[in-house]
Specification:
The complex is a heterodimer of chains A (about 200) and B (about 250). The longest helix of chain A is centred in the first third of the chain and has 5 residues. Chain A is mainly β. Chain A starts with about 25 loop residues before the first strand and ends in a 28-residue tail after the last strand. In chain B, about 45% of the residues are buried. In chain B, strands 4-3-6-1-2-5 form a six-stranded antiparallel beta sheet. A five-stranded parallel beta sheet of chain B has the order 9-8-7-10-11, with helices on both faces. Chain B is built from five helices and eleven strands, in the order βββββαββαβαβαβαβ. Helix content of chain B is about 20%, strand content about 30%. Classes of the chains: A mainly beta (about 200), B alpha/beta (about 250). The interface between A and B is large, with 41 and 54 residues.
Chain lengths: ~200, ~250
């Protein structure tokens, strides 16, 4: 039971429908940026997206090949572990289901990898069934580099560090390998509705 | 890349407020005595949670301003006028109050001697807070690793830890430089503009020295500084960043 902070009271009106705001989060209209290093700038000529690891055959798409796949537009709420949530964000890109279509694997986990060396791990099933996308547009515009452009993973049902910026592929794995922040004490799964911010939460 | 030691759950605990000090018109330093020492590394942060009498709670992250070697846990908080937690911490919190917190959090934006150097710390505004923890740790362990801090701030009045940082200047290993971007006192001999390529080329160590760089500040500042450092030839893998605020 938390003690009362003398003199503290709510300063903001209820931000939004409380049913859409996970515990410990507040709603912002801004779009804060959090990254561990400089923003990488990979030219689209050199860009590929790959599925590697525990698969019979690796797959790879060039930028143009990825853009020629069916594009989906989704409007979702996103939740950052640093406490902000942003509602009704609109993205466009390719569903991970489409990328995994025809991939034969017994893997149960995926490690997303990005330019700049960032990684994040997820159960493969959290990337399937219409729950995840590789997006290259935000709010109708090409995705800004500081927000992860040219393309980032979008997995809105988990804390936003799982939505790897500058994503370049997925390594499918039989075993679960902690990614970048997961190795520094952040929660391995990261469900915002269970407030799984840090290891042990 | 180093890994944090496996550790248990980060539990909430109470820390007593033992001292408060105004740093600038918008920032206040909060000196705390936690029930259990956090055992943090320089550069890490804590989560602070406030609870209203109607049960409403709000939590935010704040960088730790003290070195692991310091006696107390110190936070320095900048008031965001449309904020909910920072105005309380800067204006309403009193000595003798207890603050609920947990940590330490973050394991990448940290420095200790084993990571080497030379060190380049680049601060924009209140981004100096976690870098000050690194400075103090560097001094506490009497490190011989060369360290340079570039601190960009609008005016001298807005310099956080002004006495400490200006006092620390004439030291062989410590080289602290300011750039005052909006207003400079008469006779100012430091930089007087927003960071640019020439300024960073002047301050950053030679590329061949492979400096370890920590940049902290508002998003635009950090993006600019990191982009310029990479374009000057510094290894992106040795530039660690912490950004705050909207784009």
């Amino acid at each position: 039971m938390s003690p009362i902070s003398r003199g503290f009271h709510r300063r903001r009106g209820p931000d939004a429908d409380p049913a859409r705001v996970p515990p410990g989060q507040y709603v912002t209209g801004d779009f804060p940026v959090l990254s561990a290093g400089p923003t990488p700038h990979t030219s689209l000529d050199m860009w590929t997206f790959s599925i590697v690891g525990a698969v019979d055959e690796s797959k790879s798409w060039s930028w143009n090949e990825l853009q020629s796949l069916p594009q989906e537009t989704v409007t979702v709420d996103i939740h950052c572990v640093t406490k902000w949530s942003k509602l009704d964000t609109t993205w466009a890109g390719v569903s991970v289901d489409a990328l995994l279509d025809g991939v034969d694997t017994s893997a149960e986990y995926a490690l997303a990898f990005s330019d700049g060396g960032y990684t994040t791990n997820l159960p493969l099933e959290d990337l399937q069934g219409g729950k995840a996308w590789v997006v290259s547009s935000y709010d109708g515009e090409p995705l800004d580099p500081e927000h992860g452009g040219p393309a980032r993973l979008l997995v809105p049902h988990l804390y936003f560090w799982k939505s790897a910026k500058w994503v370049r592929g997925l390594e499918l794995r039989e075993d679960d390998e902690p990614g970048f922040w997961e190795g520094y004490g952040y929660h391995n799964y990261g469900d915002p509705w269970k407030e799984q911010r840090y290891a042990g939460d | 890349m180093e890994r944090a030691a496996v550790r248990g759950r980060l539990t909430w605990q109470l820390a007593n407020v033992v001292e408060l000090a105004a740093e600038t018109a918008r920032t206040r330093t909060i000196v705390l005595e936690p029930a259990e020492p956090l055992g943090h590394r320089a550069g890490q942060h804590v989560d602070v949670r406030l609870t209203a009498d109607d049960g409403y709670q709000a939590q935010r992250s704040y960088s730790i301003a003290s070195a692991p070697d310091d006696e107390h846990l110190v936070l320095t908080v900048e008031r965001l006028d449309d904020g909910e937690v920072s105005p309380y911490l800067v204006d309403d919190l009193r000595v003798g109050d207890a603050l609920e917190l947990r940590g330490p959090i973050g394991g990448y934006f940290v420095w200790d001697e084993s990571l080497g150097g030379p060190l380049l710390l680049v601060a924009g505004g209140s981004g100096v807070v976690p870098l000050r923890a690194m400075l103090r740790h560097h001094r506490a362990v009497e490190s011989r690793i060369p360290l340079r801090l570039l601190y960009s701030v609008r005016s001298l009045d807005e310099v956080i830890y002004r006495d400490e940082l200006t006092r620390a200047r004439p030291d062989g290993e410590l080289d602290i430089r300011f750039t005052l971007t909006r207003e400079q006192p008469d006779g100012w001999d430091g930089y007087a503009r927003r960071i640019d390529r020439e300024l960073l080329a002047d301050v950053a160590w030679p590329v061949e020295d492979r400096p370890l760089v920590y940049v902290c500040g508002p998003t635009g500042f950090v993006e600019t500084a990191a982009d310029i450092l990479v374009s000057l030839g510094h290894d992106a893998g040795r530039i660690r960043t912490e950004r705050f605020g909207p784009t």
